[in-house]
Amino acid sequence: MRLTLSNFVNYTSFMKFHYSILCILITFISYSQSVFDQDQVIEKTMSQRWELDDEDKNGTFKLTFYKPIFVLPARWSSNPNELPQSESLENSFTEVQNYDQVEAKFQLSLKTKLIQSFLFGHGDIWLGFTQLANWQVYNDPVSRPFRELNYEPELIVNFPMKVNLFGIDLRMAGLAFNHQSNGRDLPRSRSWNRIMFHAAFEKDNFQLYLKPWIRIESSDKDDNPAISEYIGRMEANAIYNKNKHSIYVIGKNSLDFDKNRGSLEINYLYSVKSNLRLHFQAFTGYGETLIDYNHKQTTLGIGISFIDW
């Protein structure tokens, strides 16, 4: 191929872009290794992650990890959502978007305790924040846009518990006010608010989180009126850790027996060094992101993970 000025500029831009991605990954890895032990896989109990027992209390306003933190440079979709729709016509696309089947996906998630041992010394209040990004990083014809960014702040009231139920321990329960949105204008805008209840169980290397919720109906215009019929009304997270291997499964369901919908996400992680892990992710169903809340697809992703549940 003949080298032209245009080709040279494109090649230079390409190399600068991938150098930036590499720098981001190195920063993540360095930070992860500086926080955690460098030779052993650090598996934290539910009490250590949520400071349930007295010996695990760490006070307030200290940032800790919340949901899994991962980077998937390659995520393939069986059915890219090129014409996002909503029951609200204002929030429906009229032109097909030129999206690639392969994009990048990453998630950041942190929490901090605002109040410790309130209500007669039995409860904690946490502030959590999660950001999920889907990036058309390989789609040069449309300037590599972020296809979707989801922001999820939540205020969590949590109560430590020690109740044995059929051989498994109920370790905590509570509720949260959860807001999720993509911060976009029309027709991309999607958002909803929920009161989420939770109960968490633990037995040896196994953890189970059950999260039913009630949607708070919007008094103004609703970006996605039927979102509960697709993403669902309940979530279950099952986590199993064994040596260098971790599996966590996230299932969501509409709890509607006539039109049963939801999603299933399976994650497998293998520890390379300490909390740096290879991460394989498979998703099928509705609502992988807010813009896809009523769009069904199957996706496969591969990358690295730094923190899991």
From TrEMBL:
Signal peptide: none annotated. It is found in: Cell outer membrane. InterPro entries: PLipase_A1, PLipase_A1_sf. Transmembrane segments: none annotated. It comes from the Bacteria. Keywords: Calcium, Cell outer membrane, Hydrolase, Lipid degradation, Lipid metabolism, Membrane, Metal-binding, Signal, Transmembrane, Transmembrane beta strand. It holds the Pfam family PLA1. Belongs to the phospholipase A1 family. PANTHER family: PHOSPHOLIPASE A1. Homodimer; dimerization is reversible, and the dimeric form is the active one. This is Phosphatidylcholine 1-acylhydrolase. It comes from Psychroflexus salinarum.
